[in-house]
Design a protein that fits this description.
alpha+beta; globular; 98 residues
């Protein structure tokens, strides 16, 4: 389960991943990794070929997730990861949005 929303160590990262990141299992692998790290939030494909995600949790785990995003699953080719930090949105669990 994700850390308490009132935890001052909880951060929220809004992420856009560019490259060959659709049709390569990126969302499923993101779910696996975020769940393993006990983060909350979501991941989805965008019509323009990017993947968008929100990661919430303790700073060290969110930063580990962001490092993973730069590589993604073995079949992905990540060109760029854009990150914007924002106030936590208090998500429950981690979801793949279809």
């Amino acid at each position: 389960m994700a850390e308490s929303a009132s935890d001052p160590n909880t951060i929220c990262a809004h992420v856009f991943v560019l490259g060959r990141v659709q049709g390569v299992g990126y969302r499923a692998s993101t779910w696996d990794t975020a769940t393993l790290l006990k983060l909350s939030g979501w991941v989805r494909n965008l019509r323009d070929g990017r993947v968008e995600a929100i990661f919430e949790g303790p700073r060290d785990r969110v930063e580990e997730m962001l490092r993973w995003c730069h590589q993604g699953p073995p079949t992905a080719l990540v060109d760029q990861v854009l990150v914007e930090y924002k106030p936590p949105e208090h998500h429950k669990g981690f979801q793949v949005i279809h």
